[in-house]
Design a protein that fits this description.
The chain has one domain. It is elongated. It starts with a strand and ends with a strand. Strand 4 and strand 5 (133-137) form a beta hairpin. By secondary structure, it is of the alpha+beta class. The relative contact order is 0.20. The protein is built from 5 helices and 16 strands. Helix content is 24%, strand content 37%. The chain has helices at 12-25, 28-55, 74-85, 169-178, 253-256; strands at residues 5-8, 93-104, 112-122, 125-130, 133-137, 142-146, 151-155, 158-161, 182-188, 191-197, 204-212, 218-225, 238-248, 262-265, 268-271, 279-282. The chain has a 12-stranded mixed β-sheet with strand order 9-10-11-12-13-2-3-4-5-6-7-16, with helices on one face.
């Protein structure tokens, strides 16, 4: 699946250790919703094709034949693309901030309410925050902080690997038609919302972006994902809303990476006084 992720570099043993420890320190919600953020920004289309392959094995979906071939509004699709490009996580530098609301009809324990997120990147430097978890990826090391568990994982720097770029308008149009989506736009005051909707889709039933009609500044990203096990039941859907405070080409990475988490004293890495009481797990050699 195409996505933006951290690819481990360095010694193979350290990579295995990092994988094990990271899964313990980074909560499932953080991992899942971080993935949602990346998918929602630019790769929702690749994701639907990927999840279709796995979901078909688990869900029984009625085959719905389309009698009428929909007419594609190319101008509206182009406007949709221009807004999404402002959320493109494949850029060498960007900053996305806001809050997330999420519910999962298949698992009521998996929900988020006004959870803060920050995603800043400049080339290979990266800072992310999702609720109580922060990740600092610098030239020197990678630090994962779980404030709830009061644990800090120190490891070697990770390579930030970009996903494939957003499809061009022709391919995007073909995809929308092939997957049976309808595209529509509604306006309210100064805002406009463009939606891709297919209530019978195997994985992504709805994808909407709300933005300022004049500046095209994105304000809200909404999508409704089908349950892998009961895709035909809308009560089982996962709904995620990303409220966007900032979508900037200026990462402000120096500001976010300025927080000192560890320092080296007497050839040993130690936590700064700000993190007194936290446990340091050091696999950085």
């Amino acid at each position: 699946m195409a996505s933006l992720h951290l690819r481990k570099t360095g010694h193979h043993l350290e990579n295995q250790t990092y994988n094990i420890l990271a899964m313990k320190i980074i909560p499932t919600k953080f991992v899942a919703l971080s993935l949602f953020l990346l998918l929602a920004c630019t790769t929702i289309f690749a994701y639907t094709k990927y999840s279709k392959k796995t979901a078909l094995k688990k869900a029984k979906i009625a085959v719905i034949d389309s009698v009428k071939t929909p007419v594609l509004d190319v101008a509206l699709l182009e406007r949709f693309k221009k807004v999404c490009e402002k959320l493109d996580v494949n850029r060498k530098e960007f900053l996305l901030t806001g809050v997330i609301n999420a519910t999962d009809g298949a698992d009521t324990s998996e929900h988020l309410d006004k959870t803060t997120y920050i995603y800043s990147r400049k080339n290979q430097l990266m800072y992310t925050r999702m609720g109580e978890v922060e990740i600092f990826n610098t030239k020197e090391h990678c630090i994962t902080v779980n404030h709830q568990q009061k644990k800090i994982l120190l490891s070697s720097p990770k390579e930030v690997v970009s996903a494939s770029l957003f499809p061009d308008i022709k391919k995007l149009g073909e995809f929308v038609l092939d997957e049976g989506y309808t595209i529509k736009s509604v306006s309210d005051s100064n805002n406009e919302t463009i939606s891709l909707v297919n209530p019978n889709h195997i994985s992504c039933k709805a994808y909407r972006v709300t933005f300022d009609a004049s500046s095209l500044k994105p304000k809200l990203l909404h999508f409704r994902m089908s349950s892998f096990y009961e895709a035909e039941d809308p009560k089982m859907d996962k709904i995620v809303d990303f409220y966007i405070n900032q979508a900037s080409s200026n990462s402000e990475i120096d500001h976010y990476l300025s927080k000192k988490v560890v320092i080296k004293q007497d050839r040993q890495w130690r936590l700064t006084p700000q993190f007194d009481g936290y446990q340091l797990i050091n696999i950085f050699k």
